[in-house]
Every structure is written in C-alpha cells, then in structure tokens.
Structures
1.
Amino acid sequence: MHALSRRVRFGFASRAPMSSSSSSSSAAAAGRVAAGGRDPSENPAVGRLRELVQRGDAADGWEKSWEAGVTPWDLGKPTPIIEHLVKSGTLPKGRAFVPGCGMGYDVVALASPERFVVGLDISSTAVEKAKQWSSSLPNADCFTFLADDFFKWKPSEQFDLIFDYTFFCALDPRLRLAWAETVSGLLKPDGELITLIYLISDQEVGPPFNNTVTDYWKVLEPLGFKVVVMEDNELAIKPRKGQEKLGRWKRFAHRSSL
Ligand SMILES: C[S@@+](CC[C@H](N)C(=O)[O-])C[C@H]1O[C@@H](n2cnc3c(N)ncnc32)[C@H](O)[C@@H]1O
C-alpha cells in the first residue's frame, strides 16, 4: 500500500493551546480536551514512545520507536499547510531542509526542480522507510534523505528554507537553545524558517514536550530572528485544529547601536 494512503494515526496532543498570544479565554480552554482529540498522555503509543526515548540515550530511543513502529505523530501524508504553501508560490526556492523529517512526507511535498530538499532524521530506520516509499516518485531527484544527528550534521551548503514540524517539541527542552543556534547556522542569511508549532501544555514529560509560541521566540529572537507571520493553522488536520500555529521567521542582521 502506498504510504500516503495509510490510515492517519494521531496521538500527539489534544489539549487546547497555551501560547504567547494566549488570552484568558485560551487559558481557560487549556483544560479542555479538544474535539476528537485525546490527551497524549492517555495514548498508549505516546506512553511507549516516552518510555523508549527517556530510557537513556535519546537517539537510541528514537531508533527503537521507529523499529517498533511506535510513531504516534505520523500523519501518513504531508501536512496540508505545506501543500498550500507550495501552491501559494511564496516559499523560497533553492535548498530546503526538514530536520527530524520522519517518513518525509513534507520533504517530498516541498521538493521540485526549483527546490531541492534534504530530509534528515537520527533514525536510520526512519530514513530507510522514507526512501522506500519515495524513491520512485516523479520528483525523486529533487530530494534526499540522510540519517544523522541534527546537532552534529555539517552540510557543505546552507539552506534557503528550513521547515520544522513536531521536531522542536520532540526534543528535550534543554536542547532548545542549541536547536535555535543550529537552525541559525544552517540557514542562509536571508533564508526563511518555518515552524509549524504544535501547541501543547500540561505534560509532565515528553515527547511531545510542552510547547508554546513563546518557547520559540525566546530562543530565536536573541539570534536576530523576527516573526513575519504567526497565525492559526486553519488547515490543521481535524484532531489538531486549534492546536497549531504557523510561524514564518526571517533573520535580520543585528544593528549596531553606534
Ligand atoms: C515527532 S517526530 C516528527 C517527524 C516528522 N517531522 C513528522 O511530523 O511526521 C520527531 C522526529 O525527529 C527525529 N529526531 C529526534 N532527535 C533527532 C536529532 N537529534 N536529529 C535528527 N532527528 C531527530 C526522530 O527520529 C523522529 O523521527
């Protein structure tokens, strides 16, 4: 069966968002379970993922979760907003990068003769699976999948576009500053960072870890990133409706105060 036609599974967050733009009403909503959703901590697959990733070496945990097929975040298709952005023609062309790409649906959706996309995942099983389903697609020359650690990988060229979806919130929050520094180093000076922010609160552990717009802003702003767009993702899949923000960021050189 083609990977894109697999049944869409859910398991990541279901509670209403808390973000930098949280109003008292959204704060009140934080305790509600979103329609059709579940608290991720009540999803056995998320519980299993958490056990595996927290058991010692996170890289090993991710590999084991892929080997065991414990991938509760996996949509089985590209996230609709990416397809919409591609169609809108507003995305940078050139070179794009998707860290923590998993099955790589978004990698393939972004790839075209004008935009070469690198999908990177720490799990060699994930990368194998991504290659398996995608290698005979018509745009297969326009993307590649690599197994490596985002924090250690050193490409020969920077990127015009970086897309993060459920990667930031999958990382131990102590790595967030390093995530921002790494993103900053991988992006061309005039490049664009897109964070499809999966809002989640009230989690004692992760992944996914508690995640707000402010969490991104705190680590990106000191590096010169500015928000160009921060809006609700109207195209989120049903169980994630109201839980996703589309953030488009550009980095501007720090101005000298002299
Ligand atoms: C929650 S999944 C998201 C996958 C994909 N972005 C999606 O939305 O379907 C997080 C992914 O990040 C990968 N990952 C975790 N730590 C990583 C690291 N340090 N470097 C690269 N990939 C990593 C995991 O193997 C996993 O596939």
2.
Amino acid sequence: MECPQCQFPVKAGAKYCGRCGAPLDRLCPRCQTLNPANYHFCHECGAPLDQEAKGTAEGKLELPDALMKLLPANEVVRVIILVSEPTDMEEQAAWSRLTAEQFFTGYSEADAVYDSI
Ligand SMILES: [Zn+2]
Ligand SMILES: [Zn+2]
C-alpha cells in the first residue's frame, strides 16, 4: 500500500501516512464506513467515494450526477467542501526564509535589555 499523496510505502491498515500525514482511509459519504484510500467505491454500500464538485462560471457549485443521486430530493443537506490548495514547496521555503529574516532584522540593540533579565 502506498500513500496517495507522496507514494511513501505505508503498512496495510495504517490510517495516516508516516511521512506526510495524509489520511489513508476514506469515509463513505453514505454509510460512513471507512474504506482504504485507493478504493473508488464504498466496499460496504457501493457509493462512489471520489466526488469532485466544480465551480461554475456563475459562481455556483456543480455536483457530479453520481453524488446527486445519493442526495435526498428537496432536503437540506450539509456539504463539506475540501479545497485542494497548491503545495508549492519553493513558496513554503521562501516564506520561512522571509519570516526568519524579518525576525532577525527586527532584533535591535534595544531588545538586548531582555537578555539581562
Ligand atoms: Zn504520504
Ligand atoms: Zn458506504
């Protein structure tokens, strides 16, 4: 079994990746059964686990038909939206470098008084 996010080999039955911490089990939206991360359909009830909603040009959410079939008609449902953010490692590194630089330039002689306390 591999981590779907970083391809790190993880032990069977593991719930989180040991390298990047990505969750490895997927909760079925219909019956709440935990499924292995590489399953595309729930092994308990057959509901599709891969559901991606698209944002339309009008700013509305478009849900896939497979998901719409699971939703009760004319009922209020709660939808949890996970936005995939770009994980730009270079940007991350630049950001931590910037904060470190700001920290050290902000350290003036006047702050040195705290060292003697
Ligand atoms: Zn991982
Ligand atoms: Zn299910």
